[in-house]
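Hello forum,

I keep getting stuck at the same step: I have a sequence, I want structure tokens, and every attempt I make locally crashes halfway through. Rather than fight my setup again tonight, could one of you with a working pipeline run this one for me? It's a single chain of 306 residues.
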Amino acid sequence: MDIPCLWIFAAFCVLSVYQVNTSLLAPVLKLEEKILDGESTEITCSLPTNETLDVVLQIVAKVNFSECRNDKGPPPVTTCQLDATSQMHGTEVTCEAHFVAKSKTEIIYVHTDPKFTDCPEKVTWVEGHEETLKCKAEGYTPPVVHCYFNKIKVKEGEKFNVSRSMAGRQECKAVNSFDMTSTKVTVTVEYKPKILNLGAVPLPPVPEGENVTLTCEAEGIPPPTYTWEGPSAEIQTSPDNRTITIPGVKQGNYGTYVCRAQNKHGEDTQTLTIYQPGSNRGFKPETLFAKVLLMLIPASLMYCVH
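Reply #2:
Ran it on my machine without issues. Output:
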């Protein structure tokens, strides 16, 4: 580049800086001509412009002003009241203009894989109760979490009624626009006992002197405990109390035995009657009535034909 060209470029830069500096507005500070000791005086700081500007005007001095008012204008003006005293003689007062710079903010969004942050490895529920599975995941976009209990699909945070079929090792999935991840949850479903079978060996009727064993089988979680009620205390029980044995049945052993299966969620009972041969304990009137009715029907038909 030629020397004359450099001088022209330098002159242009100086002129630009000068124009920028001279374009800045200078605040105007006004004081009353005669300020008297013991009286209130007004000090004004203004910016000579007819435009609405984002600016803060401030009157600065090593004294305390009794009151200051701000008017955004245009033109913007700040006025302060001062209770003058002789000690304030010679105090400097400055009018400052603080221009507020404009700014713009953007947020950076980074798409990431979903990741489970708070999902239990094991849960225990009670059948029939209302529950909510809390299984949180993070990522961007925010993932949606569903858990699959066999054929039942449940969204994270959604309420549902617990059924026994939900028990087992189940899967939860977190899905967003970027990817998918999964985790396993072991579900235990507790429920009250249900007696499945109450039987005797041998089956009644049981002759005197013979041994008889009663067995009660129930399901439930936690596993139920068993208790028995009957006409005689002369019985032998198994370690888990599911089975009782009556050795050498006597007259005092005949009667109704009750099996009760219990856990913390409830109980179930069933009864079984031990009776001796020849008794009418196993007699069912409806069975006899049915037999008699079957005998009478053919005779009635023959009578109608003739």
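Residues 3-23 form the longest helix (21 residues). If your local run keeps crashing, start a new thread with the error log.
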